[in-house]
Amino acid sequence: MITLPRPAPPSARPAMPAALKTLLKARWFQPALQLITLFGFTLAILAGFFGTPAGSRNFGIVFVWIVWWALLIIVLVPFFGRVWCTVCPLPAPGEWLQRRGIIRRTPGKLHTLGKRFPKRFKNMWLQNFGFLGIASFSAIILTRPHISAGVLLAFVLAALGLSLVYEKRVFCRYVCPVGGFIGLYAMMAPLELRVRDCKTCLEHGAKDCVVGNDQGYGCPWMVYPGNLKRNTYCGLCFECIKTCPKDNITIRLRPFGSDLFVAQERRLDEAYKAFIMLGCALVYSTVLLGRWGWLKNWANMDTLPHWLLYAAGLWLFNLVLLPGLFWGAAWIGRKLAGEMKIRDLFVAFAYTLVPLGLAAWIAFSLGFVFVNGSYALSVLSDPFGWGWNLFGTADAAWTPFAPQLLSFLQVGVLSVGLMFAVNTAYRSARQFYADHRGAFTAMLPVAGLLTLITGVFMVLYLG
Amino acid sequence: MFKRSEFIARLTVGVILIGLPALILGYQFIVRPQLSGIRTIDISASSPENGGFQPNSFSVTAGETVMLRFTSIDVTHGVAIGPGLGVDLGQIDPGHIKEVTLTFDEAGTYTFYCNTWCSVNHWRMRGVIDVRDRVNPNVIPTALPDPVIAALVAEGVDIDASVHNRSSAMSSMPMDDAPVLVERPSAERGATIAAALTIPTEFQDDAWRQSHTPQQAIALLLTQNPNTPQTDLADAVAYLWTRSAASESLARAAPYYAQNCAACHGETGGGDGFMAAQTAETPVAFADPNYLFTMRGDVLYAKIRRGGMGTDMPNFGTLLTPDETWALVDYLWSLSVEPNNSNR
Amino acid sequence: MPPLIVKRRLILLCALLVFVAVWFVPLPALRASGTHEFSLDMRQFEFTPGRIEVQQGDQVTITLSSSDVVHGFYLDGYQINQRVEPGITRQITFTADQTGKFRYRCAVSCGALHPFMIGELVVNNNFPFWRALTLLGVSLISTLVYLYFGANKA
Prior knowledge:
The complex is a heterotrimer. Chain A is mainly alpha-helical. Chain A has helices at residues 18-25, 29-50, 59-80, 83-87, 92-99, 125-136, 138-141, 145-165, 170-175, 177-185, 198-203, 208-211, 239-243, 268-287, 293-299, 304-337, 342-350, 353-372, 375-381, 403-432, 436-462; strands spanning 191-195, 212-213, 216-217, 249-253. Chain A has 2 domains: 18-254, no CATH class; 266-462, no CATH class. Chain A has 21 helices and 4 strands. In chain A, the strands form 2 sheets. A two-stranded antiparallel sheet of chain A has the order 1-4. In chain A, helix 3 packs antiparallel against helix 18 (353-372), helix 3 crosses helix 19 and helix 14 (268-287) packs parallel to helix 18 (353-372). The longest helix of chain A is centred in the C-terminal third of the chain and has 34 residues, at 304-337. Chain A is globular, with a radius of gyration of 23 Å. Chain B is an alpha+beta fold. Chain B has helices at residues 4-35, 147-155, 187-195, 206-210, 214-224, 230-242, 247-260, 262-265, 289-292, 297-306, 322-336; strands spanning 39-45, 53-54, 57-61, 65-72, 77-82, 87-92, 97-103, 108-114, 126-132. In chain B, a hairpin with a 4-residue loop joins strand 5 (77-82) and strand 6. Chain B is elongated, with a radius of gyration of 27 Å. By secondary structure, chain C is of the alpha+beta class. Chain C has 2 domains: 3-28 and 131-150; 35-124, Immunoglobulin-like. A 5-stranded mixed beta sheet of chain C has the order 3-9-8-5-6. Chain C has a 4-stranded mixed beta sheet with strand order 2-1-4-7, with no helix packed on it. In chain C, strand 1 (35-43) and strand 2 form a beta hairpin. In chain C, helix 1 (3-24) packs antiparallel against helix 2. Classes of the chains: A mainly alpha, B alpha+beta, C alpha+beta. Chains in contact: A-B, A-C, B-C. At the A-C interface, helix 15, helix 18, helix 20 and helix 21 of A face helix 1, strand 2, strand 8, strand 9 and helix 2 of C.
């Protein structure tokens, strides 16, 4: 895991296997998957509004917050990056309306007011605050089927509304709170969509991948594939594979976490995404999986002042305390290793929280998926808690799975996350300090901080 | 005008967004009730502060067969229907369903109620079933007054008074100086002691025992056995008061007590249930003979059936048959004394 | 093979060996044979006490009670699952034969935050925790050694 990822040579990346290429070039491919998830999504919304208010017996809660979440954070994001965005049903209705078509390539412009999205929102900040906002209510959203369904429906409506006003997938790219962290953690995935040879793109003036052609639409994610260096903002819709007349776009495997070292694209909003995600994993591990009932009641809004305190604590921890600690670590590192632009160093070190944060989320999610996964069985047979028994499993009892294995896995995942993070810290430091010793010294305080954070998780899970 | 694939895709979207909800909701709320053949009443249970039973009343016709489907939507509830039907569905966990098919033979009023502690207001969680006569559906039979309670009222007994030694025909016996019982009377010791005592015939009479307090009984025994120590007499009364209770009726009453009384009065009658601190008046301690030995059985019966005014003691008269209530009274007596293990 | 690659592989191998050793090396069980009695009350969405500590080998008796609605007591790793109605106390007894932290969880849906109603039984000495902390140190040190000696200094 800690082999240094070698950047792929800029040219002559291999072509995809023919079968994969045929599949990704097929116009029905993405809609077919979206229709499947749309089916599950509609069922979840229906169950949320009409099914039993008891979350553990409601498809809308169990399949969204246990099954989907586990699949997303433990499998899809770490191994396939943004592939959830390929199949996500939330923006589908809006996109289909913009295109006036689901599968077909409709000629002409998109049906939208076509307004340009304000420049000051063209970053991750909306997603940062959106996620924090939802996180502040998470104890409520995660457990009440009708509220959960309302939030999901609000996502669809927001996506629909934005698609009517603005061009393309503005919702996915700049607004969706889920899309934000998927993009951040997709940097870890060992899978990427890139051009095979940059020169081909440079020499090709028509830029079909941006403006579209009769094979497909211009990039809905407002990305120029020819310049793609990281997974963060590519939603894997595969339109560019369809449109590229030079057959210059490919999907390929690569070492885990390669995108972390693309120095020129590091930004403060992404750094904060990394702080917020790790911070929330820590807060959830304490509040939801901890032993302190009063904290749970605060998060559950037993009284408004209690909840306000909780929410204020959550925001302060994520936006001030955690970044402050990293700033301090970067500052000490700079003191030890030599003069350097502190803000750049701080932002670069924040990316060490991408591997560690993902590991923490996996460890946290394992902690309740192992325990509550068995709800999926009963809910599959009785999605609404109406006394149905579709597959004969409606009475399957709640049975936590392998608690001993759980702590074993949590320790393993966190250790690997830490090693990856320290490795990231060193490699990033090398981009600032050319000499080995300087870089090593500069990242030592951050390495200590990362270890401390990992230690806190270990105390919470095992101590 | 479209390619076939686009048409199929649009059709599928339509099926998912319109067909799926229509299918599911239509099946559950229109087709399913009609398939079952008999009238089905869906009742959701939540804590009283969140609405209790919904609906909390409905009418059926005598002789009609109905299916009641109960579901819980917040915490675990229990459902029983009384009085006298012997219907107890047991506990219903949130999101689960329990159903019962019933035919009410006679017109009258029945109560479905929560019998698992679910909230501070748990005891308010009740619903009413109006069983109408087939011939005269508009005439609701008025419940006859309980003869025991009517007799107490006629006698002038204050059911809510805390001590009952002075009431009743025993007024000739002043009981103001009723002795304090230092230790709990023992029915086991009492069985041996009673064998050597002269027992007045009143003790054979259930009606007499139900309308007198154990303290009065001790006083009566004292008149016949003047040289016996008071503690021995208390033991003897403990034995005489509990000997006629059938062990099977006690066994039926015990879980009833645990479900409905223990939350306030305590699991063993100590008056120390987890709700004890929150009631308007401190719940009485049945385990304390100095309290219970000043009570009459028929007054206990009346308190259970009628409730206690302003004390937060709920009424159970609409839930229990008279026999079930007497069994509960017997169970209360058994809490105040050391049991007679020799014949159990 | 270039010497740098050999050095890296050597460091990785050593780290892996230490990892396996730290997690699997048998430790002497410090068995006590005391008995412990606890009262444990449940209410939405909290166990009181939220943490119980005993020694490995202890005989543990817990008297369970509920103060609001029906709860359940499920203890990870001990196959204990006891439903507890308000007003009716229940007793469970078990021998704490494995060390570590075992969560007790509400086993009967008791309201919105039911899945997060969690307490902890810690059986000392908490070897899995100490192993985890040691692993944490090993992770850090092995990565630093790897980076310091295995990095391409050019």
